[in-house]
Amino acid sequence: MAVNTSRMDEEQQSVPKRKTILRLLKYLLAYKKRILLVLCIMAGTISISMITPLLMEKAINDYVAMGDRAGLLRLGGGAVILFCLFLAGTKARMYIMADISNQILVTIRNQLFDHIQTLSFRFFDSRPTGKILARLIGDVNSLKDVLTDSVTQLIPDLVTVVCVAVIMLVKNYRLAMAALLTLPILVTGMFLIETTAHRLWQAYRKKTSNLSACIHEDLSGIRVIQSFAAEKETQKVFYQLTDAHRKAFVDAVVVADGFGPVVEITWGLGGFLLYFIGIRIMGVEAVGIGTFLAFSTYIAMFWSPIRNLSNFYNKLTTNISAAERIFEIMDTEADIADAPDAEILPAIKGAVEFSHVSFAYGDEPDRMILKDVNFKVKPGETIALVGPTGAGKTTIVNLISRFYEVSEGAVLIDGMDVRKVTLESLRSQLGIMTQDNFLFSGTIRDNIRYGRLDATDEEIQAAAKAVNAHEFIMEMEKGYDTVISERGAGLSIGQRQLLAFARTMVSRPGILILDEATSSIDTHTEILVQKGIDALLKGRTSFIIAHRLSTIRKADRIFVIDQGNILEEGSHEELLAMKGAYWRLYRSQFR
Known about the structure:
By secondary structure, this protein is α/β, with parallel strands linked by helices. The protein has helices at about 15-30, 30-65, 70-120, 120-125, 130-140, 145-170, 175-180, 185-220, 220-225, 230-255, 260-280, 290-330, 395-400, 425, 445-450, 455-465, 470-475, 495-505, 525-535, 570-580, 580-590, and strands at about 350-360, 370-375, 380-385, 410-415, 415, 430-435, 440-445, 485, 510-515, 540-545, 555-560, 565-570.
């Protein structure tokens, strides 16, 4: 199975930018009524900004030139009122759009998180957790300005540019053409810069993802790092990633910052051509002073939104790569999903059958982990799986849980193919206990209740007593209300394992799977918990994986797994009498 590491850039499929932008805009359409209100407010503010130069022209040509103070004061009073309305409208639309954009971010993040939870183990096995976090947090946050500015900046600036251009053309087409003569230079320059900048921002996002993955891995494995005094080596790797991250950012910014100079140069050339043609060619007498001032204002009103649009375009180029990374995960199809005609699995009786089951990872189809495995388990039987590491023991129980899909054959529970039942009805009836005794941040009570969220306090305590966890819990200051971290600070490895046992027990599973579940428990604690395990196994089908053979002697049948096949099958006594692989394995442990 191909695996990406914190030092490797992620591969990313090329997607047309138009498709990504349209997909983002669909989220805005969910708020079309409020956006329509914003557009109405903007129409008012844009109208006010459009008539301001005309008011200035009228004030100079009609009132100042004629010495009409009263008319000038009336015009000034009206201008003040319009300015106040302009400020109020601007504040209102900014507030509404900020609220809309934040709600959209919540929606995108929730959709992304919900989809990630549906993906199979193969997705998580193939990439560091930090890289997933980078998309879920950093990439989603980077979309905020794009969503807000697409309405509050893009639309009004586009409307302003069009309106100003029309007004200038109507008032004096020669001056207008002179001012707009440099537009082709602007369009060409922006296109060339965007093409390069987008590729560089994609590279920057990948470096950010690598850095996030490195930090997550190092903090999660800090005990290992400090135990082996590997801080300097870890720092070296971290410094390399931060340097690559800095370099990628600088490279992208150097190119992206070219937007500003291109706009300023074309703006300056446009202003020069306006005055050169207006004064030198057309002559001052042909154009009134008020008209010249109005045109000067309109030139600023034309190029200022052009500059804003270039900044938005730059921002879009910067952050569209983040949207592409988000949608890439959203478009990743779950390897394991409910079939369209999936049925709800009834209460499990416990019969399990493997019918000609073979399994290989999708990207390594020639490397078979299991090869034509066949067996039947009766309800209530306890099956132990033993064999060397990598033999396929955990793969067998993972296929029962449908964490992976069989390559060939079928896995049946009570005669029903697990691919034809809903995942929720299947997994809610399985009790899975692994050697990874992960605990969640919260109270001990909450961690045990995670096995069944509607469990009562009495059921939680009964489960803890059954696995001999109740005694050490009550010795803690707040008992079941003691708050623990995900690393279980203050708890021994054995105590964390016992809490995981209690969590599994409270779920009341129809089929129990114990994958090296007692590997972290010392011999004394194992003796105490064995009684609880016996009670847990009673009356339900169970699969136990253990390297410690003393824990599986009571199993009804033992499967010896090696190289993806069942080599031997029988009870403890029967396998010893065969003097085969199990006998040799048993002797090696108890010699």
